[in-house]
Write a structure and sequence with these properties.
The protein is α/β, with parallel strands linked by helices. It folds into 2 domains: 219 residues, Alpha-beta prism (UDP-n-acetylglucosamine1-carboxyvinyl-transferase, Chain), CATH 3.65.10.10; 221 residues, Enolpyruvate transferase domain (UDP-n-acetylglucosamine1-carboxyvinyl-transferase, Chain, Alpha-beta prism), CATH 3.65.10. It has 12 helices and 24 strands. The chain has a 5-stranded mixed beta sheet, with helices on one face. The protein has a 4-stranded mixed beta sheet with strand order 4-5-3-14, covered by helices on one side. A 4-stranded mixed beta sheet has the order 6-7-9-8, covered by helices on one side. Strand 8 and strand 9 form a beta hairpin. It is globular. The N terminus and C terminus are likely disordered.
Amino acid sequence: MPVSRYSTPQFNPYGDDAPVSTDEHWPAPRASVPLNAVVSLPGSKSLTNRELVLSALANSPSLLRAPLHSRDSDLMVEALRSLGTTITPVDAGDGRGDFGPDLAITPADELLGSTTIDCGLAGTVMRFLPPVAALALGPTTFDGDEGARRRPMATTISSLRALGVDLSDDGRAALPFTVHGSGRVAGGALTIDASASSQFVSGLLLTAARFDEGLELQHEGTRLPSQPHIDMTLAALQARGVDARSDEPGRWSVRPGPIAGSKVAIEPDLSNAAPFLAAALVAGGRVTITGWPDATTQVGADLADILPLFGATVARDGDRLTVTGPADGAIRGISIDLSTGGELAPAVVALAALATEPSEITGIGHIRHHETDRLAALATEINNLGGEVVELDDGLAITPRPLHGGIWSSYEDHRMATAGAIIGLAIDGVLIDDIGTTAKTLPQFPALWKRMLGVTEGGAGAAAPSTGTSAGL
């Protein structure tokens, strides 16, 4: 059930995977002066959607402070409402609501199916909610955008069947499928292959405390990508009083028991900070992100270690993280394994394409199965602008070449769109075909990006204020 498409972001802030008219593109602004910007970002999508699921399964109401409001999180909210959860916007009342209201969540007395859930392109919806639907009474059909039907779902489907859940998919092992919920799941021991996505693990762990026997889960694949996202899931469970642990790599245990209601402050999305912090290296100057946590399970925290490899300087001052571009303006090449933070790859590869030396980014074979095949998409788009990117089995090899302007296809992928914006900082005439797809996790991206650059709504550049400019809305 693809969502309808409008060709410009002001009419459709949430985007989807329908074709975009080729005569309507977003001109990526070129940086004209070194930056001196302060950027505030909305909440983490990964944290928001995990806490929404846990709140819906809890034994008492919860309040999410400063949650993300984006297409992915809105799809999760509507899906949980369709299963009987009450989710109400609440005015923060303290200046924290710049990006939208808080959310008060009251669990349903009994989860009810007999509904259809639109997953859009949200991996967290299509992989976190089928186990929840198994706890509901009645059938729940899952479908989404055309691109979602190409994303791997076999592990979720086979896992639920192994746990005794009745599920019909007509042999597709992909969307659409229907979970025939009986109101309970036995749980117990389960072995899966989560090589394609850590979300297969998190989706089971989030619901496991509500299974009759809890869950003893083991991963048997050759590799497990994005381990920090599983750590995030465990931390969220433990914070709500659930006995969830991992005593050895690739094994997790969740004991049956109540999930406590909670008041949770959602951290800013550090992965969405990647293009803004990368801008300091491309344009020169400095960019500060506010609200940077002291400790976090978000993979975006790795930016503080990755960006210095390119030649940046990183400094912390309280909850502010500032990245300053190289003094000589030269972006270095790097060689890095990004297996724990594959979602940072588009921004990292965009930087590598603008570097003065070759780079090799590995450990990211699994991002072929994200919103699009990100390895193929990055190689294609950079090469189309004159670059030299070669696909490896598990990554990309980037040899910097002089780039030129042209159309940058987003592939309905928010991180592809923002990678194009990074390239556009240094190259005239980069036209992004669907900037509206950034609404998947950051609807305010175009406005925040232009404000960081001191670009007026009419498109004219302006010198960045020497005292810094707040890009928060």
